[in-house]
Write a structure and sequence with these properties.
homodimer, 232 residues, alpha+beta, Arc Repressor Mutant, subunit A, Nonspecific Lipid-transfer Protein, Chain A, 2 domains, 5-stranded mixed sheet, two-stranded antiparallel sheet, 7 strands, 41% helix, globular, DNA-binding
Chain lengths: 232, 232
DNA sequence: CCGTATCCGGGGGGATACTG
DNA sequence: CAGTATCCCCCCGGATACGG
């Protein structure tokens, strides 16, 4: 936030002084979601320039919201973790997200969603416990998108969660998911479902029938998926 | 928020697109607190220029958060009231305020607080039911401030709440409150109390002993006053 | 892999004055 | 009372390239 500040003793204004600058809330959301490394944060906030990301992280550190920790000496590697003050921002993030899910029109944004970000969000919330306890490879193919963006979801070790590949990892594919990005995004945000998209031919599943049949379940949804939209 | 938007389907980002622009959260807070008229809003957000206030109100109206209603024809008079979507922003405001009260350092802002804003906030939360049921006049005198800013709190009709005057209303004064602006602000935000400020000679009360003795009670505090500060 | 450095443009918004 | 109108500066932040 710029220098001629709000200058109000109201705690709402004081907090806004910190949280109101561009990208800050979105970044904190990604931190709350669990990303700690610089490049992981970048994946969660892909349209933010690294320069600005670095700047915001410094600000958050300065404000006692984030702690920057050295995790390895060579090569020098850091992680950014929320302090107690930062952790309590979860309540703020949740309140904002719940309101957004309920009241903000989604359609304009669905039009040009980001496949990389969607995969990144899906990966995080995967219910690996509901997937077969072996290596599982799911290949997402988004129509009308430059073929360049391959999207493989690779579950090797249930303990470690899934990996994301943008190039063919070479494994046999258990399930091909072919759909438009808009539908997949709508499913993840809870305003559409796998069965409905399949029945309306917006989603095509080819492969292992078990993995296919349970997709709505193992595909963890957005934390706000349960909230009904009210926007006119 | 500017045009190159976040472009994220995450509801936190979508909501931030609306709420993230400068002054918006602070303005919504004032709307939640009950102000509906343009000039009342100005008093609650004194450092915001009328041009920007007008612009933000239009944006909020466009986004379905505020409704602009004509209340009188001559002179043309409008009021701004929160829509259902706007009312539900109260949860967001509260979450932000609670976090701010708990974790944001207050001291820098206490230094140059705004007496007009403080009076405006105090007036709103006055516990008129705990004041004598007759006309009560309290004259606040802030030391080290240009004498120009007189601050009379006038309770005429308990039904209608109190009035604020910047010029001597001419009534007999029931209580003189003499203090530095910093102490009074600290009291209102709950990090100080009337008795303590009095005992430390930062607050001087002269006048009706009943009104004086019950000041800590009839002076309604900030909605966030109960939350303990944790900031280092 | 984890950032930093630099450039540069657009526009947000602060200040001030004014009007129906 | 309820806003408009105008000016103009500053700085945010987007883009790109580069270093440890």
């Amino acid at each position: 936030m710029s220098h001629p500040s709000y200058n109000q003793f109201c705690p709402v204004a004081m907090a806004s002084e910190i949280l109101g600058s561009r990208w800050t809330i979105v970044l904190v959301r990604e931190l709350c979601a669990g990303s700690t490394r610089f490049n992981d944060l970048r994946r969660g906030v892909p349209r933010m320039s690294p320069a600005l990301l670095s700047k915001r992280l410094k600000e958050l550190e300065h404000q006692g919201i984030v702690e920057r920790r050295l995790v390895r000496k060579i090569p020098e590697t850091f992680e950014y973790v929320l302090t107690p003050a930062g952790c309590e921002l979860r309540d703020v993030i949740m309140a904002i997200g719940e309101w957004g899910q309920k009241w903000v029109q989604t359609s304009p944004i669905l039009e040009n969603a980001d496949p990389g970000l969607l995969m990144w969000d899906m990966r995080r919330n995967l219910r690996v416990d509901l997937m077969p306890q072996r290596r599982v490879v799911v290949h997402f193919i988004y129509e009308n998108l430059p073929e360049a963006s391959g999207n493989w979801l690779v579950l090797t070790d249930p303990e470690k969660g899934a990996d994301l590949c943008s190039a063919d990892p070479g494994f046999d594919v258990d399930l091909f998911v072919r759909c438009d990005l808009k539908s997949m995004t709508a499913i993840w945000t809870g305003i559409d479902t796998v069965p409905r998209a399949v029945s309306e031919d917006r989603l095509l599943l080819v492969g292992d029938s078990d993995v296919s049949a349970s997709m709505q379940d193992w595909l963890g949804l957005s934390p706000f998926a349960g909230i009904e939209k009210q926007a006119s």
